[in-house]
Amino acid sequence: MKKYSPMWLGWTMWGLVGMLYLLGFFQRMAPAVMVEDLMRDFSISGAALGNLSAAYFYSYAAMQIPSGLLVDSIGPRRLSTYACIVCAIGVLTFAWGPNLYYAYAGRFLIGASVAVAFITCMKLAGHWFPTNRFATVTGVALLVGNVGGVLAGVPLSEAIAVMGWRTAMAASGGITLIIAALIWVAVRDDPSDYGYKSYAHASVLKQGNLPAGAALRSVMARKDTWLLFFAGGFSAAPVLVFAGLWGVPYLTQVHGLERSQAATITSTMLIAWAIGGPLLGAFSDRAGLRKRPYLFSTILATLFWSLFLFIDLPYVLLYPMLAAIGLVSGGLIVGFAFAREVNHPGASGAVGGVVNMSVLGIAAIMQPTLGKILDTHWDGVLLDGARIYSSTAYSAAFVWLLVSSALSIIMVLFTRESYCTARDD
What we know:
Elements: H1 7-29, H2 35-42, H3 46-62, H4 64-74, H5 76-96, H6 100-114, H7 117-128, H8 134-151, H9 154-163, H10 165-186, H11 202-207, H12 212-220, H13 223-253, H14 259-287, H15 291-310, H16 315-329, H17 332-341, H18 348-376, E1 382-383, E2 386-387, H19 391-413
Antiparallel strand pairs: 1-2
Helix pairs in contact: 1-5, 1-7, 1-8, 1-10, 3-6, 3-18, 4-5, 4-18, 5-6, 5-7, 5-10, 7-8, 7-18, 8-14, 8-17, 9-10, 12-18, 13-14, 13-17, 13-18, 13-19, 14-16, 15-16, 15-17, 15-19, 18-19
């Protein structure tokens, strides 16, 4: 009888693919510290900037279902290697592009390529780790990803100050190519490739994954899939929209902070989000429950967004408030384990793709929407070619962050508890 692989080996396989998720998160959050630079270089409005940033989200969301089907068919190793190469091409196109059209193309390629990262991480987790640790491992993915988000804060801001945004972005493209080589050389899809016993579900080991069409039909036919689809999207969008684009200009323009100070505050939110994912995932695993931990986190997130929006907080309280929002928003990780358990074990890639599509898809819609709201309330003030928005404009836009968070409560409320047990049918 084969033995299970040592934990360090499983974490190594998973961690190398997790580096692609880190790089993807870095690229997702990078525009937040380049708002003025991008508006100035490309002579664009807030709505146009929102669309440029959201080009990543559009392609990311569109690629989720294909990514899920691809990871089931060709495996995480090959898919993540190819994705790294395409991502590097996209980053260099964005960094060196002479006009806005190249910038759009680059952001689109980046989003489409890193779209596979989270799904490949979940696929590997299903083979290299036991089922009752899935939410914990997926939570660590959020932690790893948010390290990339933090690097896109103050470190990127300082790098831009030294070398400019184009050179800083090009350097990140070179790092992505190095990650591609490491994944190709070291990563294996299943422990059996290294002579160890696999943690994959018995039905998958015996019969393999469902065919692509059957897997997709099975996943999309379940009501709980769609409830968790919208729950994840509505829960994640406020954090991604605020920390990923509009938080830094809000803090600089309304609170009068320096860009590096504002980036530090939004990084605090991302760090807390990173910590909240594994903590709430581990709690859910240990409690043997999915619905109640997820519901509790969405209720707290909505409460904290209400306090942030409707109470005029002094500067010193912005840190703990945004950290609290980030921490409880990490509960969306429970939703991925939840969705996996209420669906067929042979459709794990498909369910990951479907549910993850909303996480970036709803944020993709909200980023330019909030930009349009800001433009509607703009009073014509410009600073070095970049638009400056008032506190009234930001208040009108940010109320939709609260609405989104409240909708996530409703979605989770109507799900059925899985008790951390995978289906056998």
